[in-house]
Amino acid sequence: MAGIHEVARIAGVSASTVSNVINGRDEKMRPETKRRVLDAITQLNYSPNIAARQLKSGQTSTIGLIVPSVANPFWGSVAHHVERVALQHGYKVLICNAERDPVVETRYAETLLASGITGIILGSSPLSFEHLRDLADNGLHIAAFDRRNHGAENVVACSVSLDQELAGMIAAQHLIGLGHKRIAVVSGPFKTNSRLGRLNGIRAAMGRAKLELPDDMIWQGGDVIGFGDNEGAELGRIGIRELLSRDYPPTAIIAVNDMYALGAYAGARDLGFRVPEDLSIVGFDDIVLSEIAQPALTTIRQPVPAMADAIVRALIRRMEGEAVEGEQAHIDVAPQLIVRGSTASVHRADRA
């Protein structure tokens, strides 16, 4: 059976344009464009699916959740809590894994809008939302999870995010307070707003302590293509092995998330380093594996249940036509340092 993307291809338009014709949102559309869409629908014998008709009639309500990858337990937790809150409000959730690829995100968003779903939560923390601007202009309400709204007011309807720079500062200050001076960062490519925010916070804290963070102490994914969400643990292992093999290795690392941090555990063990006796490690997110790792991981907690509750409520209000603005629409939450067994005072010889 032909789908909406096939109709769009035959008509030479976007899937959102086809959706606008199907759902009667064609007042400003050129007659020629509408005619091509209708001709393509007739040619392919296309009809919207039952779910889309139910959505249009108001018989059911659904939110789209587009995340990098549930291979990272953090996003699995986000999906769980978003779904729980949505169900409390009578909404279902469709989960899409887009691996932070703007093309894939756009295609998912087009498909969701074409199916009558008018609200999505986007978890990729992109540097720009321009790839979704046309869809926002066509009625898609976009909620940003883990990304502050700055600079995206005309695209993002609501947002919730950790203060990423503060989170990076807290992680670095913890290690500095333990006497560490040679601190390294292990991450995938710094191509997201959240990763850059954390790095800026780490730099700021180290600068205030009169410490340097040289470029060769920032490992960002090696030759990985994309963002390294699926390979986080293995990249953490590779990254720390490279850093610890240097003549002047770090005494502590900050990993961009807990999966990278747990991979760093394995890489340190590969080279005979002990955590935390020889190397202190701090992660981000506080996934469930952090507490049961050996030793348990010191990390920066994101309050996922509260964040999910806030973003789902704000998005549903926007989808239902309420005016949600200011602090009600764009919510910042505070990071929390969870100190466990993976960090300790620097060894006396390293102090010297």
* CATH homologous superfamily label of the largest domain: Response regulator
The total of beta strands comes to 12
User: Proportion of β residues?
Assistant: 15-25%
Enter the CATH topology name of the largest domain: Rossmann fold
Quick overview:
Helix content is 43%, strand content 16%. It has helices at residues 4-11, 15-22, 31-44, 50-57, 73-88, 102-114, 133-137, 164-177, 193-208, 232-244, 258-270, 288-292, 304-319, 348-351; strands spanning 62-67, 92-97, 119-122, 141-145, 156-162, 183-187, 218-220, 252-255, 280-285, 298-301, 330-333, 336-338.
Explain what you see.
The model is unreliable at 53-60 (pLDDT under 50). Helix 11 links the parallel strand 8 (252-255) and strand 9. The longest helix has 16 residues, at 73-88. This protein has 352 residues and is an alpha/beta fold. The protein folds into three domains: 1-47, lambda repressor-like DNA-binding domains (434 Repressor (Amino-terminal Domain)); 56-162 and 305-333, Response regulator (Rossmann fold); 164-302 and 337-351, 3-Layer(aba) Sandwich (Rossmann fold). The strands form two sheets. It has a six-stranded parallel β-sheet, with helices on both faces. The chain has a six-stranded mixed β-sheet with strand order 7-6-8-9-10-12, sandwiched between helices. The protein starts with a helix and ends with a helix. The chain is built from 14 helices and twelve strands. The protein has helices at residues 4-11, 15-22, 31-44, 50-57, 73-88, 102-114, 133-137, 164-177, 193-208, 232-244, 258-270, 288-292, 304-319, 348-351, and strands spanning 62-67, 92-97, 119-122, 141-145, 156-162, 183-187, 218-220, 252-255, 280-285, 298-301, 330-333, 336-338.
